[in-house]
Specification:
This protein is an alpha/beta fold and 100 residues long. It is 40% helix and 12% strand.
Length: 100
């Protein structure tokens, strides 16, 4: 599961594509959810079935209720969260204590 802001959906998709070359499937909401699907249900399914979360930490990451909830869901399930700090602002909240 790649948690990201919508402004960085192209970069998230590029990472997802790169991971697929190694046999790793990635849930990237904007590309994974099919047309006419209830997107909230699809995001929940992705969160329920993920084995690892990659968090695209951008300067605006924690300004989104969605990314905050996604990270909280992963941590609540005990799923490893890997923070990828892509801009200047470091991770916040529960991710703050882990080196990005």
């Amino acid at each position: 599961f790649i948690s990201h802001r919508d402004t960085h959906k192209h970069e998230a998709r590029a990472l997802g594509d790169a991971l697929e070359e190694y046999g790793i499937s990635a849930f990237v909401a904007h590309d994974t959810i099919e047309a006419m699907s209830e997107w909230r249900d699809e995001v929940r399914k992705g969160l329920q079935t993920m084995e690892v979360m990659l968090a695209f930490i951008t300067d605006d990451f924690d300004e989104s209720a969605w990314t905050n909830q996604e990270v909280g869901y992963a941590l609540g399930r005990g799923v490893p969260v890997i923070s990828l700090q892509l801009e200047r602002k470091p991770p916040s909240g529960f991710l703050e204590g882990t080196q990005a």
